[in-house]
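Minutes, structural biology subgroup

Action item carried over from last meeting: produce the structure token record for Flagellar biosynthesis regulator FlaF (Hyphococcus lacteus). EB confirmed the sequence was re-checked against the source entry. Recorded below for completeness.
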Amino acid sequence: MTVSALARNAYDQSTRSTANPRAVERQLLARLTSAIIVTEKKRDEDLSSFIQALSKNLEFWTVVATDVVGEGNKLPSELRAQLFYLFEFTRKHTNKILNQDHQLSAEPLIEINQNILRGLQGQPEPA
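Output recorded by EB:
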């Protein structure tokens, strides 16, 4: 089973456990973001946990990207394109950290996730 299929399976199981998919997305994204924040602070001592946190975050974004390009997705096309762009950025930045520059910050990934979380909670973007 591919990473994408595993991520989708885990995501689908989570969504079935509750009546509110938006709440599940929010909870999952909050956990992923927290994991990146915590593990990045200790990346010199525990690089494998940091890599795992980044990988799980990328799995989430892969599921999002797969969903937004699907024909059955009912989000407005502009929002779908924006979410796909965020996936592309997340994928590229994560790969740079994992493959090329181990000192590169995960801060852009954290900011993306936090902005999406605010959107899922219906909060405006900070000034």
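Discussion: The mean pLDDT is 85.
Next step: EB to file the record with the rest of the batch.
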